Amino acid sequence: MSGATPTANPPPPAAGITTRRTLLRGLAGAAGAGLAGAAMSGCSSPKDVARASTSDPWRQFAGTTLNFVSENTAPTAAIAANLAPFTELTGIRVNIVTLELSALVQKVALDLASGQSQYQVIYADPYQVLAPYSKGLVDLRELAADSSVPHLTGGFGDFIPTQLEAAGKFGDRDKVFALPYDCPTMIWHYRKDLFDKHHDAMSNDLGFDPTPGADTTWDQYAAIAKWFNDKTDDIPYGTGHQAKQHDSLMCDFSNVLWSYGGDYFDNGKAVGSLGATDPGKCRLDSDQAAEAAAFYDRLLASADPASRTWDWDGVGAAFRAGRIAMCPNWHEFAASNEAAMPGKVGYARLPKGPARSASHYGGTGIGISANTLPNERRAAWLFTVWATAPRTQLANLKSKAGGGTPTRTSVYELPEVRKAEKRPSAMPNMLTADAVNEAWKPANIGLRPKIPMWNECDTAIYTQLSRMLLGDAKPAQAMGDTADRIDRIVARGWVS
Amino acid sequence: MSAAAPTSPLERGTKSSRTLAWVLLAVGLVWTLVPLVWMLSSSLKSKADVTSGTPKFLFAPTLDNYRNLFSGANDLTPYLTHSILAGGVSAVLAVALGALAGYGLSRTRMRGRRHLSFWIISTRMAPIAAVVLPLFLIFRQLDLIDSVFGLVLAYLTFDLPFAIWLMSAFFADVPPSLEESALVAGCSRWQAFYRVVLPLTKAGLVTTFVLCLVFAWNDYAFALVFSGPNSQTLPIAASQLVTQTGIDWGQLCAIGTFVVVPMMLAGLAVRRWLVTGLTLGAVTGE
Amino acid sequence: MSDTLTDVSEKSASRTGRRQPRLAFEGRLMAPGVILLAALSIVPFLAIIWMNFSQVRLLGGVATSWVGLDNWARFFSDLDMAANWLRTGAFFVLTVGLEMVGGVVLALCLWRVVRGRNLVLSLLLLPMFVAPVVVGLLGRFLTDSTFGLYAWLLRGTGYTGDILGGKYSAFAAVVAMDVWEWTPLIALITLAGLSSVPLSVREAASIDGASGAQSLRHIVLPSISNVLLVALLIRSMDAIRYFDIIWVTTNGGPADATKTVPVRLYETAFRFFDLGYAATIGLVMLAVSIAIARIFVRLLDQKGLTR
């Protein structure tokens, strides 16, 4: 990937290329002629946006329209609800298309494949977009070094380093394909009101202090869950999980897997942070993985049975509806929790397993399509810089429409943000600050493998886990089957 | 059986069999209507009422969910415009081309017309996910991605074969003697078709139009791939309501109702003639 | 009927003294539609054939490299494919079967009642017009274990499980959603068939003293068998490629219980972007759909019903 830089991009297809023409494209062209004849307007090459000469580098692309395709996450909801500052600053209009994650991945891949850029700014999920299609994204260091456009506010160094690496890079330490845009991380959400109310009874019955803390273990978590099931009618179930046959099940299980000392591949941390194209043999056939799976199976047996139908949204809604006393979930749900049951929810780092505590990081960056034309690319850069700027992140935090949490160190250091970590908080997502700061420590963070064939591996993992949870496979067998499948998928390799 | 009217004993049946029929129909109606009624009523509920643990059967209705559909950042108006344009234009094209081809198909005696006719309907069986990539590349080449006209073409892939079959069924019902007399009276074949046959199949044209419109209006898979900020349709808007901050079911029910009601009205308006088309002419009307 | 038609066009051709080949007029009428359809279907079809022998890469414009029969080797050694097909088969038989039975029963009932028939029929038809994506989302809403109406009703009957969380219940739920949407179509078609059963036939049956059930079995059903075949043909074309509702509700889970071939195809194409393999799966699906449709069309042909 070092050879062909993303900027050495093939020209738009209609411009008559000399590069390898494929039958597919030939067919497409032939059909084009048959369908519409030469009169069709589409056969002209796409035009770059106009660049005005102005002293304000922010306004040089005024009048341009950009398209931003994003997953329907909290920060995008906040930005979509308040685009006016950007339009005022730059004169650029931005259309935001928000989609469910799998629909997003499909749209991005097709757009990259088309050789043009319907979407200039892309929400680049590190595992589903960045790893497989990093060659389709612009190396943002080049734009940051371009003196004709505004520089990156605060610089790359202001991003939380682990996040810049996990969400922004793939395979090459010197290239940044995406700027960290959101940083959902799995933490322990619990009904503080119920934990307080039953504190003494639980301590007595269980023999330990149930308050979620630095030393609470997964076994204790399971015991607390059972206690809520059996000993109180305040709430139907103790714990709930995002255990639908979906990406979310892999996310939920991984916390346990890592805390038991298991991992998907050797060198899990490196494969998780910088990523790899060939991660080697899958390690899910280890004893630790089998133990983790066995524990997860037991835990889910006493969880709300509807867990098997929930993804992260489902378990979040159930928690807010008062069905469950606690759950592991993304910390960005805090704002909705606070809106539904103000003051009743507490947050903590996830429990410890025999090896460590692991909190799954699910952050994503935004990047720029390498199919963009030079000025279009610069205009997209303006939006990318603005959308990840400290001031915008601060505004997101205050937004009524979701919000997300900052990916920049400087925002967390602002006095008003520090103040919001405690109730009453004007920025409810900041109530999770203590928990996520713990979670983001290198010892505690959990990073899934960043490999280009991840989507298929992910599917194998959550499918086998789902079989285990429904009694179709024993835990060790489920892990072994998953390892076999992943080895086959990885052996097939990846061509993008 | 004895008490029944003598003209059509089976149609009336015995008293007990009529009771049984009504009981079964009642079960069928409940099964059919409960989800729809629930969707409609949920669309009129406040957020708290929708997400109440015990279903609320009595509630204070509110139009908030509908109002929200047309205000603020997620204004539904452009989606609605795209849906009407893409669905309407593709249905009109399908009917126009389908009427011509259907008439030709019903009257031709060319060899292999059975094969042609089977090929036409078989194009409708293609698995969507498999044909989408080639179509996407063609559309990209023609600059039809994210355009309403691109959606029109995409919808024609399933509407056109359907329209041809339907219309040929309707034309087959028109007695050829009519054309014969028209030809005797000095009409050209085109005039015989256009002036004599076509007016007789108005019902067929309307039915075909409505069914094509329903298919196009309801499409999700093609719209997901081919549409963009300038061409998103209503089903896409519905799926976009599934978001991280929780699914707003009230809003979703409102949009569902909004998507469904026009098609139901259109469908019921042509119910009488649906049969001829849908049985491919094996049964002629009610 | 086609014989009379033949006569007409021959006669008319001779009377108006046309010298053109007989196909010309019909051919000209068919041309625009058929050509457009060909452009929209044959090119993708050829592309799929090409893709199924290739590995397809996307970035920088689509490119393919020839891999011969690799995708087919993979297809036949695929651990999950047989299970996917079995599930598709079960889904097909269950949905189409239940829709046929339900549709015929409803049609028979409607046929027996005279007053209110049109109103009841109109109400019964409504699900046909609902967008599948709305059906799926509505299904999720109704079965949601926190505030779903059906989940709540089932709890009242003592069912404690979770509808979309169990293997069999989830499968049953997606089948039920399809049945909900399409039974009305069968009812509509069957009712039309029943209404065209000649009165004399029915009267003859009653004069012979045949009981209701017997006349139903020996006289009524046989006389509408052709209509039932058409209904079967229409439903089965779509039942094989059906996936919208499953994708929206269960995503193929739990434990792969609802992962039918079209879901697998969609996932292979648009989650894994393994387009060569997806083309292979798609070709097999197309072949199966066409084979099934052929069977029905041949049956109809034998009865002389296709025109």
Describe the 3D structure.
The complex is a heterotrimer of chains A (496), B (286) and C (307). With 496 residues, chain A is α/β, with parallel strands linked by helices. Chain A has helices at residues 23-36, 74-81, 84-90, 101-113, 126-133, 140-144, 161-168, 192-197, 199-206, 218-231, 247-259, 268-273, 287-301, 312-320, 334-340, 374-387, 390-398, 409-413, 415-419, 433-439, 454-469, 475-492, and strands at residues 65-71, 93-99, 121-124, 179-182, 186-191, 237-239, 324-330, 345-348, 359-360, 364-368, 445-446. Chain A starts with 22 loop residues before the first helix and ends with a helix. Chain B has 286 residues and is an all-alpha fold. Chain B has 15 helices and no strands. Chain B has helices at residues 9-12, 15-43, 47-50, 64-69, 77-107, 113-122, 128-141, 148-172, 176-184, 189-200, 202-218, 221-226, 234-240, 249-269, 271-278. Chain C is an all-alpha fold. Chain C has a domain at 86-255: MetI-like (MetI-like fold, Orthogonal Bundle), CATH 1.10.3720.10. Chain C has a two-stranded antiparallel sheet with strand order 1-2. In chain C, helix 11 (225-241) runs antiparallel to helix 14. The model of chain C is unreliable at 1-20 (pLDDT under 50). Classes of the chains: A alpha/beta (496), B mainly alpha (286), C mainly alpha (307). The interface between B and C is large, with 119 and 122 residues. Chain C: Residues 85-296 form the ABC transmembrane type-1 domain. Chain C: InterPro entries: MetI-like, MetI-like_sf.
